[in-house]
Each structure stands twice: as C-alpha cells, then as structure tokens.
Design goal:
CATH class: Mainly Beta
Helix content: under 10%
Largest sheet: 4 strands, antiparallel
Order of helices and strands: HEEEEEEEEEEEEEEEEEEEEEEEHE
CATH superfamily: TolB, C-terminal domain
Number of strands: 24
Strand content: 35-45%
Radius of gyration: 18 Å
Distance between the termini: 27 Å
Structural class: mainly beta
Number of helices: 2
Length: 345
C-alpha cells in the first residue's frame, strides 16, 4: 500500500470503530475445523503496529512488517503472540512494506517505503535483506533511478521480483551480491501517474501476476519466457471493481487470494475484503468475497488450509500529517485473523 506524502483531511472517527470490525474478523477466523497447533486462528500483534505485510515459513513462523514502526514482528510456531524481531529503523527500514521468506538464502527480504507516518528515521525506498534466524541486517538494494519498493515474489530460479509503485516496472534481483535491474517496463503497468503496481505473485509456470494500486476491474498477468525475460502483458478482467488490491497470493494453478485494502475509498474506508479469484481460460476471472467489512486488509498468506490476514487500520494514521507520526493515538490493537479456505491447495 502507498499514499502520496501529503496532508490528509481530518476524519471524525475513532479507532474504537476498528475494534468492532476486528472482533467481527476474529469471529470469521473461528469457522471451519480447528486450526493446527502450529497456526493459531488469531494471533496478537504489538499495539500501534500498523502491519503492512505478512509472510510465513514452511515451519509456520510468521513475519509481519510494520508501516508505522519501521519494524518486523515474528510469531514462532505454536505461539499466538508476536514479538519484535527486527527493531524500528534497523538497516534503514522506514515504512515496512512487503516481506518475503527466502529459505534457500536464509534471508528475510523486506521492502522499505518512504511515504511517512513512521517513527523510524526517514530513508529512501529500498529492498532490505535480513538474516532469517537472527534478524541481523545483511544488505540494502537501492531502486535504480528511484521508485518505491512495494512487494516481492520469489521464482523457482531464486530471483526476487519487486513491484515498483511509482514507476511502470517490475525489478529483479538475480543474485544477492548484484543490484536490482528492470525486468519489464511498460505504460500498461501504471493506470495512474506515480501510482503503479502493488501486489505480486509468481505461479508454477513462472507467470507473474500483479495488481494496480488504484481500484481497477483487472489484474495483470506477465508471461515469463524460457530465458527468464518478460513476455506478453495480459489484463485479467474481473466482473467488478477491485478495491485497491494490496497483496496477491498464489493458491494453485486456478486460484489466487487477493487482499483488497480499499485504502483510497473516501466514502467507504472500512470495507476492505479478502477475496478468492478463480482464473478462467483466456483473459477473465471470477471473484468470490471471503470476508468483507474489514479495516484495510493490506496483506495475508495461505497456510495450513487457511488464509491469515492483517487489518492495517490506515484510517487512524491518515488523520495525521505524514511527518506527525508522534501524534498518532496510542494503544491501538492489532491481530492476525484467519478463515478457512473454500478451496484447498
């Protein structure tokens, strides 16, 4: 999720309204069979965390980035409470964006944003690398020519693909010791100037799916050729307007799970959704809503037959100026909720 660094109009709502919606989402997490021991149905995050993205390792360890604190929290298998894993501002982390587990490299990749609303020292947007076990900083990769590191996906070949929110391009990191380079750049990747790509996922055929920051009746599919270069860009049309798809997760060859934060809806800011996308032959897909009425569900992950999702509550932050993070209300609660998937991978 990304917003331009401008003052937001004061909105006359309190965070208590979000608590009721979080409670409703918690109830959603109790439907279906009991959750496995390694994945509690509801996980408590630190107060005032404002989570932006979540990823999970094969052993059930969750990692959650914070947009407000510029930090990452970790939930060990079998635990129902997160603890700070990467402290605020470590390795220049400012707005914690997409997070990605890279088991082969024992690396946690984190996109760092540069919008504001963070208590960490301001830095330019970059791709950050941390040790997966200790949280120790490993590297930082600048975006060539600037841009905004929003989210990432990992290919079978071990390449990291980065969705740029300010330019119509996807970047790639071929090797830990190299620099980010442009994989594809095309005007079709940006519906609105300076508000381009958001979520990203790679399927088993190595096609790349991306979402627009702005509300749109489509996702985009980008073919990957045998040599790893970008091929045709295909719009995947859906029957309704998608409400700012903040994250895209692959379920199987025919399904994606998307997280519609609804972040820019002035008249409906508390109606984010978690939805299941069923891909059809050709250039279309259907969308089924799994959960609605959520407070900016900016990300989630599929694990153990369930979808785990966060609610970012951007509305609370956006009552304040981007450079007034110290004035944000204290004691705002956050959790990871979950619900059973109607389609099992």
């Amino acid at each position: 999720m990304i917003m331009e660094p401008r003052n937001q109009k004061n909105r006359r709502k309190t965070w208590k309204g979000f608590a009721g919606i979080a409670l409703l989402a918690a109830c959603l997490g109790t439907f279906g069979p009991a959750q496995a021991e390694t994945s509690p149905a509801v996980i408590t995050l630190p107060n005032d965390f404002y989570p932006e993205s979540v990823t999970v390792a094969e052993d059930g360890t969750f990692y959650v980035s914070s947009w407000h604190q510029g930090a990452v929290a970790r939930v060990l298998p079998g635990q129902d409470k997160a603890e700070i894993f990467i402290p605020s501002g470590s390795n220049g982390l400012f707005n914690g964006q997409g997070v990605l587990v890279d088991a082969a490299r024992q690396t946690l990749w984190v996109c760092s944003g540069s919008v504001g609303f963070s208590i960490a020292p301001r830095t330019e947007s970059a791709l950050k690398a941390f040790d997966l076990t200790t949280g120790t900083p490993k590297a930082s990769y600048a975006l060539p020519g600037g841009g905004y590191c929003n989210d990432m996906a990992l290919s079978r070949a071990g390449r990291i693909y980065v969705a740029d929110s300010q330019r119509p391009r996807i970047l790639v990191l071929d090797d830990e010791k190299s620099a980010l380079r442009t994989w594809v750049e095309n005007p079709a990747l940006c519906r609105v100037a300076d508000n381009c790509l958001n979520g990203i996922a790679i399927d088993r055929d190595q096609a790349v799916y991306v979402s627009h920051i702005s509300a749109a009746p489509e996702l985009l599919k980008i073919a990957m050729t045998a040599d790893g270069s970008a091929g045709e860009i295909t719009p995947i049309r859906v029957p309704r307007l998608l409400k700012n798809v903040d994250a895209v997760r692959l379920l199987d060859a025919e399904h994606l799970v998307i997280f519609e934060s609804n972040a820019f809806a002035k008249n409906d800011p508390l109606n984010g959704s978690v939805s299941l996308v069923t891909l059809h032959p050709g250039r279309s897909a259907s969308v089924d809503t799994l959960a609605n009425g959520l407070a900016a569900p900016s990300s989630g992950v599929v694990h153990g037959g369930r979808v785990f999702f966060i609610q970012s509550k951007w509305e609370v932050l956006f009552r304040h100026a981007p450079d007034a993070a110290d004035q944000v209300e204290k004691g705002v609660p956050f959790v990871i909720n979950s619900l059973e998937l109607p389609v099992q991978p």
